[in-house]
């Protein structure tokens, strides 16, 4: 508390509720895009420099067994937002709406889609920003939304079904009712559609900022310098003249939002940054030049994928490494901004990635992670696709600690609520019902160093329809199911998941298969094959 708060506290006789309201921690949750477990120096990376995140780990807690919600973007974010795993959450894959939109919306000579975005979250299930807004927090989100579609011709028309959820059959004549302005977000800037985030020099971004611009709904922020030049899908070299780099625009908006915050109003910032995802193309500055020189003898070109969102480059390894270091620099600037504003001592900052490393746009995770500790990449439920870096620093978090607690993104809803002094239990697995399912267990005790009080999961669960894979972790046992065939690994002796020991452990296999069948609720859109079942299309 500052001196004014201390005086009020004394005058009012130390009323607990007032004191708690004034001392509630701010929270910044930074989720980057497609960073692998081994892409940071503090996780063993030797070729890429990440001083700010390494410093964050040294000043806080670095987790070794933290897991994303899914091996791809939209469902992983949905698990974070809803507190549900992919056997229960509605959004279990990247179900796109832009693919259905046939008429281009032109920005100069550059085409784009009228309807953009992904399958909406259920409005009948509250998400993290709604809960924090109800508790008096100011809320901001910067980066990917990926939780509903946006119709450029109908930006403020929302059609819902009988249950109050988005009517997804009405996408041609409405926007989704699950957009930031309707889901607890006070300020938003970024791509509503994660598809738009495949390129770093897009035609536009989306914005909702009633405080600064008087926005009444999500709007299109046209990037005027960019649209003066050809778009990435053309494959035309004029694309290289675009200068409005979305990763920087989103980051600067987030910093500006922190600048607007006040000492006496707690805030929740969800920074879903797009680096180091997909297109390996960025400003040719000192960061990129450093790696261009460093990898000159070993680098190789990417020829591009014209008609898509991946532009060609002459130095794919340098491009990828520079994106990681650029992201690290942005994290350092966030931490510095919190110190500058006097928020650092009362702000929990968490950094993580939405899933494992990608191989898109010329990226080569094997080249950087030559130790090969984890098997699999993005879209795989092997460890490499779902185990992610996870670092926390803030009030009560023991400095310089390495923690082996097993957690997944769906634990963050009860954890952040608990940490903020709110009711995490009401949104945890303990409170789950058939009507309102929650799968998380708060690890706030772990964050505060109270390890003996920490409750643990019996198991962690994943499923992903595109690769028809499921996974279950139970202690050190890990079951991976692909096309209905189950394999069993002992992670304590086989972290790379090379040796299938299912035949030697029939009781363990039977128990884990039972749990998978118990945790899976069928989905209309995202179908998977359960163990020992024939594939269901």
Task: Write a brief structural summary.
By secondary structure, this protein is an alpha/beta fold. It has helices spanning about 5-10, 15-25, 50-60, 75-80, 130-135, 210-215, 225, 245-260, 285-295, 315-340, 365-370, 385, 410-420, 445, 505-520, and strands spanning about 25-30, 60-65, 65, 115, 140-145, 150, 185-190, 205-210, 220, 265-270, 345-355, 390-395, 400-405, 405-410, 460-465, 470-475, 475-480, 485-490. It has 15 helices and 18 strands.
Describe the structure.
- The protein has 537 residues and is α/β, with parallel strands linked by helices.
- Among the domains are: 3-47 and 129-159 and 168-388, Alkaline Phosphatase, subunit A (3-Layer(aba) Sandwich); 468-537, Arylsulfatase, C-terminal domain.
- The chain is 25% helix and 15% strand.
- It is built from 15 helices and 18 strands.
- The protein has a ten-stranded mixed β-sheet, sandwiched between helices. Strands 15-16-17-18 form a four-stranded antiparallel β-sheet, covered by helices on one side.
- The longest helix has 25 residues, at 316-340.
- The protein is globular, with a radius of gyration of 23 Å.
- The protein starts with a helix and ends in an 18-residue tail after the last helix.
List keywords for this structure.
single chain; 18 strands; Alkaline Phosphatase, subunit A; alpha/beta; 10-stranded mixed beta sheet
């Amino acid at each position: 508390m500052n001196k004014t708060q201390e005086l009020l506290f004394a005058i009012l006789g130390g009323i607990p509720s007032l004191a708690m309201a004034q001392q509630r921690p701010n929270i910044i949750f930074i989720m980057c895009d497609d960073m692998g477990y081994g892409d940071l120096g503090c996780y063993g990376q030797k070729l890429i420099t990440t001083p700010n995140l390494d410093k964050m780990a040294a000043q806080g807690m670095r987790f070794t067994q933290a897991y994303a919600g899914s091996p791809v973007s939209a469902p992983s974010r949905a698990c974070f937002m809803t507190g549900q795993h992919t056997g229960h959450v509605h959004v279990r894959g990247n179900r796109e709406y832009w693919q259905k939109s046939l008429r281009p919306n032109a920005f100069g000579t550059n085409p784009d889609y009228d309807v953009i975005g992904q399958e909406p979250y259920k409005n009948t299930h509250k998400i993290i920003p709604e809960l924090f807004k109800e508790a008096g927090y100011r809320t901001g989100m910067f980066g990917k939304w990926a939780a509903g579609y946006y119709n450029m011709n109908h930006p403020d028309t929302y059609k819902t079904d009988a249950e109050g959820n988005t009517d997804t059959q009405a996408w041609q004549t409405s926007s989704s009712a699950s957009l930031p302005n309707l889901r607890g977000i006070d300020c938003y800037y970024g791509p509503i559609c994660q598809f738009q985030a495949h390129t770093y020099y897009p035609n536009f971004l989306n914005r909702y900022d009633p405080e600064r611009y008087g926005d009444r709904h999500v709007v299109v922020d046209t990037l005027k310098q960019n649209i003066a030049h050809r778009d990435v899908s053309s494959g035309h070299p004029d694309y290289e003249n675009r200068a409005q780099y979305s990763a920087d625009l989103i980051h600067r908006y987030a910093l500006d939002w922190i600048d607007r915050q006040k000492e006496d109003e707690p805030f929740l910032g969800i920074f879903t940054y797009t680096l180091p995802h997909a297109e390996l193309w960025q400003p040719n500055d000192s960061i990129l030049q450093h790696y261009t020189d460093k990898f000159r003898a070993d680098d190789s070109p990417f020829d591009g994928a014209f008609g898509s969102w991946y532009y060609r480059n002459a130095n794919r390894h340098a491009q990828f490494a520079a994106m990681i270091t650029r992201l690290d620099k942005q994290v350092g600037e966030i931490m510095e901004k919190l110190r500058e504003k006097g928020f650092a001592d009362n702000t929990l900052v968490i950094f993580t990635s939405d899933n494992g490393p990608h191989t898109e746009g010329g990226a080569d995770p094997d080249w950087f992670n030559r130790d090969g500790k984890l098997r699999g990449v993005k879209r795989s439920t092997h460890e490499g696709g779902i185990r992610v870096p996870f670092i926390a620093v803030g009030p009560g978090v023991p400095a310089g600690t390495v923690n082996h607690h097993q957690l997944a993104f769906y634990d963050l809803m009860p954890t952040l609520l608990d940490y903020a002094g709110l009711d995490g239990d009401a949104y945890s697995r303990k409170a789950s019902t058939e009507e309102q399912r929650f799968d998380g267990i708060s690890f706030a005790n772990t964050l505060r160093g109270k390890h003996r009080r920490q409750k643990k999961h019996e198991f962690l669960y994943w499923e992903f329809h595109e690769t028809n894979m499921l996974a279950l972790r139970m202690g050190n046992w890990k079951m991976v199911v692909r096309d209905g065939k189950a394999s069993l690994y002992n992670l304590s002796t086989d972290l790379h998941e090379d040796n299938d020991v299912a035949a030697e452990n029939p009781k363990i296999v039977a128990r884990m298969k039972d749990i998978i069948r118990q945790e899976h609720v069928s989905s209309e859109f995202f179908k998977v094959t359960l163990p020992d079942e024939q594939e269901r299309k």
